[in-house]
């Protein structure tokens, strides 16, 4: 049985990506939740990963501690599932979108941290965040125009799982988006795997002060 180590569902965008992908494609796994910002967090993960961060996938004796490496491993081990698009060019574009998300958009990450439970319209925006948003929208638009939707490459896949946390940020902070982008955000949010993560995240009711500057005590 695969074991996926994750952080709080309300906050952990990196954990969300492989969890949603595995759930969406029916890949069986056992979830191990590690509460962020607790004394035992790093100690509990240190035996599993040199970076002691989530997510971590255990596949027997193999431990994989990077979200993109995790989903690449899943795609290799489960070729019966179209985690990546089957068509070569589409697969290359999907990998490009995921790699861009994996390595970029630092202003969006820092100013609009994922906080599923919160409603913070207008918070976090600045010109640097807007530049990140515009790049994301260009990538989404090109993919949706080519595939015809409703997801980036037609059917739900790894690219959508990787951008699910961005969709969560947009729902929390409500930046200005064109109607077609909101339609995509809503389609991702309505996917059963994404909705399951969201509902479980909202049910946690564990709030970290660092991520909750606007919550009243």
TrEMBL record:
PROSITE patterns: GST_NTER (PS50404). One of its GO terms (biological process) is glutathione metabolic process. Gene3D superfamilies: 1.20.1050.10, Glutaredoxin. CDD domains: GST_C_3, GST_N_1. One of its GO terms (molecular function) is glutathione transferase activity. Residues 2-82 form the GST N-terminal domain. Keywords: Transferase. It comes from the Bacteria. Pfam families: GST_C_2, GST_N_2. This is Glutathione S-transferase.
């Amino acid at each position: 049985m695969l074991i996926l180590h994750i952080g709080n569902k309300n906050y952990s965008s990196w954990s969300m990506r492989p969890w949603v992908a595995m759930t969406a494609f029916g890949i069986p796994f056992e979830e191990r939740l590690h509460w962020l910002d607790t004394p035992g967090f790093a100690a509990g993960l240190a035996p599993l990963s040199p970076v002691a961060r989530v997510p971590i996938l255990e596949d027997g004796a193999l431990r994989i501690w990077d979200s993109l490496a995790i989903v690449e491993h899943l795609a290799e081990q489960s070729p019966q599932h179209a985690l990546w698009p089957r068509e070569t060019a589409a697969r290359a574009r999907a990998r490009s979108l995921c790699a861009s998300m994996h390595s970029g958009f630092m202003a969006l990450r820092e100013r609009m941290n994922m906080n599923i439970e919160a409603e913070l319209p207008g918070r976090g925006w600045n010109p640097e965040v807007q530049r990140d948003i515009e790049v994301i929208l260009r990538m989404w638009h090109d993919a949706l125009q080519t595939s015809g939707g409703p997801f980036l490459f037609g059917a739900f896949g790894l690219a959508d799982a990787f951008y699910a946390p961005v969709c969560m940020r947009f729902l929390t902070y409500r930046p200005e988006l064109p109607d077609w982008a909101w339609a995509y955000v809503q389609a991702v949010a309505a996917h059963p795997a994404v909705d399951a993560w969201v509902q479980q995240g909202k049910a946690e009711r564990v709030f970290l002060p660092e991520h909750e500057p606007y919550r009243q005590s």
